[in-house]
């Protein structure tokens, strides 16, 4: 029995896959639970059209993310924080990096910025995930407040 999966099913396949399963498993579990639908010719055409539209939207999102990545690569981010010598009073986290990017005109949510907790002045790198396929390294420098 051929089915189109509506969502990921463990040991069967992923969303929008066309899979072959035993008739009883499909009829008694997958279809009633809403995990799949029959793979009729019309359903296959609808799926192909949906995948085509999704790929077009995905390409646009990736292009936008790439533009933002290029803008981030051109930035020189400097963060000032109170410090005694080289040791900071407190720490610099992804929240501070997001605020520095906001000042530079790039709005990115802090959850998409990955950096360790930094407690010393110096140069560091943060990873910014703009899309699952577009990840950019952001070099930044922490300076002591004068």
TrEMBL record:
Residues 64-142 form the Large ribosomal subunit protein bL9 C-terminal domain. Signal peptide: none annotated. Keywords: Ribonucleoprotein, Ribosomal protein, RNA-binding, rRNA-binding. GO terms for biological process: translation. Pfam families: Ribosomal_L9_C, Ribosomal_L9_N. Residues 1-46 form the Ribosomal protein L9 domain. GO terms for molecular function: rRNA binding; structural constituent of ribosome. Binds to the 23S rRNA. Belongs to the bacterial ribosomal protein bL9 family. This is Large ribosomal subunit protein bL9. The lineage of its organism: Bacteria, Pseudomonadati, Bacteroidota, Flavobacteriia, Flavobacteriales.
């Amino acid at each position: 029995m051929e089915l189109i999966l509506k969502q990921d099913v463990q040991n069967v396949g992923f969303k929008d896959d066309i899979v072959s399963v035993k008739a009883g498993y499909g009829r008694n579990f997958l279809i009633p639970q809403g995990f799949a639908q029959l793979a009729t010719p019309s359903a296959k055409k609808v799926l192909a059209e949906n995948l085509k539209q999704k790929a077009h939207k995905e390409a646009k999102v990736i292009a936008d993310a790439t533009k933002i990545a290029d803008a981030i690569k051109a930035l020189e981010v400097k963060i000032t924080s109170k410090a005694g010598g080289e040791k900071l009073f407190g720490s610099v986290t992804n929240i501070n990096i997001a605020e520095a990017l906001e000042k530079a005109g790039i709005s990115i949510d802090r959850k998409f910025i990955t950096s360790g907790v930094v407690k010393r002045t110096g140069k560091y790198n943060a990873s910014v995930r703009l899309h699952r396929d577009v990840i950019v390294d952001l070099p930044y420098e922490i300076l002591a407040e004068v």
